[in-house]
Amino acid sequence: MTSTSEQNTPREFVSAVERLMYPPEILVRRVREHLAARGGNLERAAHSIISEQSMSSAIAGGLAAVPAVMPGVGTALTVMGGVLTEMLYVLKMESELCMMLASLHSFDIHSPQERRLAMLLASVGTFEVQQKESALASLGIASMEAVWNYAPRETGKLLLEVVGQGLVRSAAGRSARTLFLAVPFVGIGIGAMTNKMLTQRVGVRAHAELGLRRQVLGKGTPWATSDKEPSPAT
User: Fold this and answer.
1) Distances (CA, A) of 2 to 8, 74, 91, 206, 234
2) pLDDT for 209-219, tens place per residue?
3) Burial of 197 by CB count in 10 Å (0-12 exposed, 13-18 middle, 19+ buried)?
4) Which of 112, 73, 118 is CA-nearest to residue 92?
5) Which one-letter DSSP state was computed for residue 229?
6) Which of 52, 53, 51, 31 is nearest to 42 (CA)?
7) Which of 85, 82, 61 lies closest to 13 in space, CA to CA?
8) Chain centroid, CA 114 distance in Å
9) Taking the model in full, what pTM does it have?
């Protein structure tokens, strides 16, 4: 596990998330399983993927408050380390969520650029749900549609800028929530519910953005409408 001191900059935070994420082949296999279980229906498979990741996110939110059940030291651990660790795991799961949704829409997540775009989509979605404002607009970018054709270097730079904004704003705005997390048992429920709702909203937004991207690019066929695994839409 990466220590708190190693997560202080956007680049280190992103690297920590990447090390925690499942490899693409596992995520692709999970997409196939969701599709098979939902009769090949894209919308139902997307809903299933979002629901599964939201539940995992809820568990992470609850676990962040578990140390508070222990008096004294446990409360201190929750206040000092739990929130940052939770942020790390939430972005990991939301990045995996966006990667699975990208794969569902026929984009090749074995490509480093596609994984970077998925992390960017997760970061932008998380920022906008939490802060109620556009992360891209603050950087002078009109929408995600303007980002899809970025070169890898530009995508990587934008990802770090958005993550950096998110870390600063989240750290500044989480004081009240941290106090709730530090309340034994109450914090577990609050952490779980907040994370579940956050991940659901990020997933719904990502699904819509990826559907629009596929239509705009005019490439690829959703797995749900093809008997064969599609060619990558990149």
Assistant:
1) 11, 20, 14, 27, 33
2) 999 998 877 65
3) middle
4) 118
5) P
6) 31
7) 85
8) 14
9) 0.76
